[in-house]
What we know:
The protein is an all-alpha fold. The chain has a single domain (4-179), classed as Four Helix Bundle (Hemerythrin (Met), subunit A) (Up-down Bundle). The protein has seven helices and no strands. The termini are far apart. 36% of the residues are buried.
Amino acid sequence: xxxxxxxxxxxxxxxxxxxxxxxxxxxxxxxxxxxxxxxxxxxxxxxxxxxxxxxxxxxxxxxxxxxxxxxxxxxxxxxxxxxxxxxxxxxxxxxxxxxxxxxxxxxxxxxxxxxxxxxxxxxxxxxxxxxxxxxxxxxxxxxxxxxxxxxxxxxxxxxxxxxxxxxxxxxxxxxxxxxxxxxxx
Length: 185
């Protein structure tokens, strides 16, 4: 069986498809929105459609984008439901510069929070303390910035990798908590 994470779309190709469809969001933010919608209590597909597909244009590019997004949503669901902790974030690749990788990471976090809100996750009091703390951390991570120039780039790359791992684990915990039927409404 193929690992779902290995089937994530090419970041640059999805970026081109988004631009061609007139969508202002980038691939990382779009994946964040889709993931947040999957972790939310309500069926958020109509909401993510409005968030990502800003116009209802019937252009072929918009249709191709919609098909790609539905496929990405189902792939993301498969990663979250997998028993191997195989959830991956769609972020700029390692060949991108550190600032571009960080921008993708913060975009992903903002998209995730937007997807959660669009899916009806408004009251955090119904969440476990662990998930509530995680969501507070995601808000802070959505505002992350690089240190001043001349700092330890290798150290910042390690720190970003650790944040990505923390984000992956937290998303998985939130999704599992929702699936287990704990009250998220």
